[in-house]
Amino acid sequence: MRRFAALAVGCVLSVPLPSAARPFTVSDLLAQERFGSVQIDSQQRWLIVQKFARWDSARRYDMDADTILGLSRVHVFDLANKGAERSLDFGDATAGYVPASLSPNGEKLAVYRIAGHEVDVGVVTLKSGQVTWLGVTPRLPMVGRTLAWRDDRRLIVATRRPEALDSFFGYGWLAQSRLPPMWETAAKGGAAVSAFGSGRWLGLRAKGPVGALLSIDLESGRRTVLADETVIDLEVSPQGASVAALAEGEDLAPRQELARADESVRRRRLVVVDLETGAKHAPLPDGDVITRLLSWAPSGDHLLVFARTANTPWREGRYYQVAPDGRAEALAPPGLTPAMDGTRFKGALARGTWLGDAPVVRLVSGQRDDWWRITKTGPVNVTKDLPGSAQLLAADGRTLLMQADGRLWRVGAHSARRLPKTAQPRIIRATDAGDRSPYATPRLQAAVLVDGGGASLTTLAGERFGAAPPRRDSRRPGSTARPAGYGGARRPWGRGRRDGGPRRRAAGGSHRQC
């Protein structure tokens, strides 16, 4: 029950408390303390709670909405010891500490330290409360995941040079810090310009130093550069044999159509690295890979992505099945075209997952879009028996949990079964993959059903929660051991509000209904 006790905690933390009978003032707003994400480890012993200090206690306010990161605190509670809080030796009490992901065995927690404009990564040993700082500057998980556990002792981290631009984290202060030297140069008659090219001069815009994708062995301290790339998203394969990453490429020419808020001005290149041999592959050398979809098959033998050629419209793109050795196969069934969703910023969104080792993607046939399993013998419509367009809620490689026409369905490779009308889903979403988190498909083990009266929780296997909870698999980083957020607040990264700090909801957690 510990896992769903944490769910109850998240719900309680998000319920507003009664206030005194007086007007709510701006000072009250700035003095609020809030909770963010809540996680529980794979062995259901440690409860990780993110809390935010008062806005008016911040050390500096030049980081725009990301000022909230400097106010983040991490609290750890021992569920095997009556919920006693574990003291943590972070060192600098004035810095912000943001929880990242738990190790597969649940014994360690990766954290980010935000000290002014400086960022570092550390690892907390939960049993002792000791923290080891790695002394690397990570790219924060804004677009996608930038830190992942390969196993219990090795981390994969996307890093940047400290002086390099992080366009999201540096939004509030970086331009201001660079302007005075340019003004001084101009005052002395020098050239102080920012060049943006087009046509044959498209690549004229200045680029900062590239980052690096690192493998860090926490026991030996060894650090291996896997790729000299500026990585914005990564995903380790289920068995930890490979890592797929999206890296920043060359500039893209703007198209003659309406601009979208989350359109990139640079191509996103796919890089796949063999973590055993170090071999690096570029499976789609001319492709621009869409963000929010990096999905490994349960076996780790293939990766599902969506890409377009050069800068064509996304609706003309294709799904691709990519092998760890770099071989890419386009999934283009005759008569079927991709069904594109939209993000909250009206950007393009391609959805996909796996049933066994066959990809399942949304495609349009005629006037209807469905989920199709792309097998070696041809495409199979797995939602043909569902009424209308189906929404994918969760998956585990064998079963899809879907919603269509207000009802829940269990969909397999060869059948679909409607669940009771009174069943309502509760989904736990991971929060460590930046703007990919709200759109990534949660694991089926992170979903439960609530009966019509809300009196019981039932797993998708039909188990009713009572005295003994199900145990979570901790065999590998990509299993159900991946941390889950239980808070009522928004995810910790992503592109939030830019019109004032206190109005931005607390970082961490998922869009949860309690």
Concise structural overview:
The chain has 514 residues and is mainly β. The protein has helices at residues 2-13, 26-30, 174-187; strands at residues 34-40, 46-52, 72-78, 84-86, 96-102, 108-115, 118-125, 130-133, 147-149, 154-159, 212-217, 223-227, 231-236, 242-251, 266-274, 280-281, 287-289, 295-296, 303-309, 318-322, 328-331, 337-338, 341-342, 348-349, 352-355, 358-365, 368-375, 378-381, 391-395, 400-404, 407-411, 416-418, 424-427, 447-450, 457-459. Strands 17, 18, 19, 20 and 21 form a five-stranded antiparallel beta sheet that branches.
Report on the architecture of this protein.
There is one protein chain. The chain is mainly beta and 514 residues long. Helix content is 6%, strand content 35%. The strands form nine sheets. Strands 17, 18, 19, 20 and 21 form a five-stranded antiparallel sheet that branches. Strands 22, 25, 26, 27 and 28 form a five-stranded antiparallel sheet that branches. A four-stranded antiparallel sheet has the order 1-2-3-4, covered by helices on one side. Strand 9 (147-149) and strand 10 form a beta hairpin. The protein is globular, with a radius of gyration of 23 Å.
Structural class: mainly beta
**Mean of pLDDT:** 84
Helix content: under 10%
Backbone shape: globular
What Rg is obtained from the alpha carbons, in whole angstroms? 23 Å
| Termini separation | 17 Å
Write the topology of this structure:
Layout lengths: L1 H12 L12 H5 L3 E7 L5 E7 L19 E7 L5 E3 L9 E7 L5 E8 L2 E8 L4 E4 L13 E3 L4 E6 L14 H14 L24 E6 L5 E5 L3 E6 L5 E10 L14 E9 L5 E2 L5 E3 L5 E2 L6 E7 L8 E5 L5 E4 L5 E2 L2 E2 L5 E2 L2 E4 L2 E8 L2 E8 L2 E4 L9 E5 L4 E5 L2 E5 L4 E3 L5 E4 L19 E4 L6 E3 L55
Antiparallel strand pairs: 1-2, 2-3, 3-4, 5-6, 6-7, 7-8, 9-10, 10-11, 11-12, 13-14, 14-15, 15-16, 17-19, 18-19, 19-20, 20-21, 22-26, 23-24, 25-26, 26-27, 27-28, 29-30, 30-31, 31-32, 33-34, 34-35
